[in-house]
Amino acid sequence: MTLMVEANNPTVEAILGHSGEAILGVGCGVLDIVSAVATYPEEDAEVRALVQSRRLGGNSANTLSVLSQLGHACAWCGTIGDDPASEEILATLRGQGIDTRPARRLSGGRAPLSCITLSRATGSRTIVHYRDLPELTAVDFARVPLAGCAWLHFEGRHPAETALMLRHATQHRPELSISLEIEKTRPDVERIFAGPRVLIFSRAYALGQGCQDPAAFLAAQWPRTTAELLFLPWGKAGAYGQARQGPLRFAPAQVPAEVVDTLGAGDVFNGALIDGLLAGLGLEALLARATALAGHKCGRDGLAGLVASARISGWR
Ligand code: FRU
After folding, report:
1. pLDDT in tens for each of the 316 residues of the chain?
2. Could you tell me the distance, in angstroms and rounded to a whole number, from the CA of residue 98 to the centre of ligand 1?
3. Exposed e or buried b for every residue in 72-96, given b needs 16+ CB within 10 A?
4. Which of 54, 66, 129 to mutate to test the pocket of ligand 1 (most atoms within 8 A of CB)?
């Protein structure tokens, strides 16, 4: 598999530099094949889906989707192949106004794909994810001009390369705000806790660290990071946030009357957080707004039209 470098690749500033307000999301772009079923099947069963859809997926791509709906100029950087699924992912991103020029095309590469079963009975999403596409490298990332960026958001993947990307970003744009999502326990992932201004942990990561208590978990992270803000969404139980040396803040979850689709709710939470941080909101308002948008998402299918629909229901 070789890297395809477009001969006349325009710079990201060319698009984003006009405002200097762009958000660059670095992570994985995925094709999600989502089948909704009445109830989650038994192993080895054969069931018929109620409805099936192909969607853009991947944490950073989903987060950018929300940020773009919130009116931000967005760009996506990750690896992508040249198969039809990769074209579909890129076309969907572009269709949402997200600049895909920072992406690295790998010729012969296949797009990551998730087969997802959504249970209508509970709203749970069971994801079987497959990828054999190489991860983005620091060399790829260094080719992306950061001049037009106001915010950089990373997924906590491939710690060795991400550490180099963080270093590159902080060397070239020391004032740039950087957020990092730590979703999974990965070897050495703690080495990237230094550098970002904002760390967003997942409940799965906290539980994987053997921690059942959000307050204790966050308290244990401070010595491991240089971040100023830590967040920990806790699913149906709400979300926690804390500033360095500040009190722990909490917002309850806003669970919709009917939970229809929880796929990407965490990514929506992250998008709302970044939007609120860019707007200078305080911790309590940030958490309340992000849990409200994530909750609203769980009451509807997919991410298309999410922000417009939340606004109709009074979300601001
Ligand atoms: C949801 C999601 C899906 C994707 C999977 C990748 O958070 O980004 O869209 O298939 O996770 O792990």
Report:
1. 433 333 233 344 443 444 558 999 999 999 999 999 999 999 999 999 999 999 999 999 999 999 999 999 999 999 999 999 999 999 999 999 999 999 999 999 999 999 999 999 998 999 999 999 999 999 999 999 999 999 999 999 999 999 999 999 999 999 999 999 999 999 999 999 999 999 999 999 999 999 989 999 999 999 999 999 999 999 999 999 999 999 999 999 999 999 999 999 999 999 999 999 999 999 999 999 999 999 999 999 999 999 999 999 999 9
2. 18
3. bbbbbbbbbbbbebbebbbebbeeb
4. 129
CATH number of the domain located at residue range(s) 2-30+59-112+134-312 in this protein: 3.40.1190.20
Distance 213 CA to ligand 1 centre (A): 25
Residue to mutate, 183, 263, 268, ligand 1, most ligand atoms under 8 Å from C-beta: 263
User: What ranges do the domains of the chain cover?
Assistant: 2-30+59-112+134-312
CA–centroid distance, 229 to ligand 1, in Å, is 24
Pairing of strands 30-37, 177-182: unpaired
Ligand 1 contacts CB of residue 241 (under 6 A): no
